[in-house]
Amino acid sequence: MNGELGFVHRFRPPGNPGSADTIVVLHGTGGNEDDLIGIAQTVAPGAAVISPRGKVLENGAPRFFRRLAEGVFDPAEVRSRGEELAKFIREAAERYGRDPKRVFALGYSNGANIASTLMLIDPGVIRAAVLLRPMLVFQPEEETDLTGTSALISAGRVDPLVPTASVEALAQLLEARGTEVTLKWQLGGHNLVPNEVKDAADWFSLQRALV
Fold first, then answer.
1. Residue 190 appears among annotated catalytic residues
2. What's the whole-model pTM score?
3. Closest to 116 (Cα-Cα) out of 190, 42, 64, 51
4. Which of 7, 81, 128, 146 could form a disulfide with 179 if both were Cys (CB 3.0 to 4.6 A apart)?
């Protein structure tokens, strides 16, 4: 575990020494830097892993940005936290000798929401993202160009925490900015369902080949 660069984080060298790919892993509320590493290594086999821990605590549970109430956020704070994380990702890529043009992301819930925010406020920091159970939490005023990026949004049809309309709004916003979006609805709630990780791995293998 490393506390440098402003975030407690884990770095795992590439399983394939020749791989230039790096996947940034972003946990959900109450998670930590270890939670999703196994899933990330399944989704992006051979890639290096950078996994930071969220710095905001909600009743002791780590998050990447705070919420004022369920589904209610402070746009200025979300943006500030996103900018801070984007800076960390760029510095971590340099520190660990990773190709900044081959940085991908995998996020779940709060982690998926900060990943989409990163894409919107800092084009280029993430090439493609697997967003598990995301919602729209931030819409920048500036017209960022996300041409050349892609995102897999995996949402639950009966998710009690994420409104369907918010998922669709996120997909539409990313598409409007130039992201190639794949939206997959799962027959489940906020937890992941069987085969979802395999589906994400299949999608991700195509994205890696396109870079």
1. yes
2. 0.95
3. 64
4. 146
Q: Determine whether 150 is an active site residue.
A: no
How far is residue 23 CA from its own chain's centroid? 9
Which of 74, 99, 190, 199 is catalytic? The answer is 190
* Residue 32 vs residues 176, 185, 187: alpha-carbon distances, Å: 32, 26, 26
Q: Which of 188, 183, 189, 185 is nearest to 203 (CA)?
A: 183
- Is residue 47 exposed (0-12), middle (13-18) or buried (19+ Cβ within 10 Å)? buried
Q: DSSP string of 28-90? A: -TT--TTTTHHHHHHHSTT-EEEEEPP-EEETTEEESS--SBTTB--HHHHHHHHHHHHHHHH
CB-based contact 154:170 (threshold 8 Å): no
Confidence at residue 67, expressed as pLDDT on a 0 to 100 scale: 87
User: Is the distance from CB of 93 to CB of 116 less than 8 angstroms?
Assistant: no
The whole-number mean pLDDT for each consecutive block of 10 residues of the chain, a chain of 211 residues, reads 84 90 97 96 96 95 90 91 97 96 97 97 95 96 93 97 96 97 96 94 88 68
121-154 CB burial, b ≥16 within 10 A, e <16: bbbbbbbbbbbbbbbbbbeeeeeeebeebbbbbb
109 is catalytic: yes
> Which letter, b or e, does each residue of 48-72 get, where b requires 16 or more Cβ atoms within 10 Å of its Cβ?
bbbbbbbbeeeeeebbbbebeeeee
Question: What pLDDT is stored for residue 71 in this prediction?
Answer: 78
Single out the catalytic residue among 19, 109, 150, 154. Answer: 109
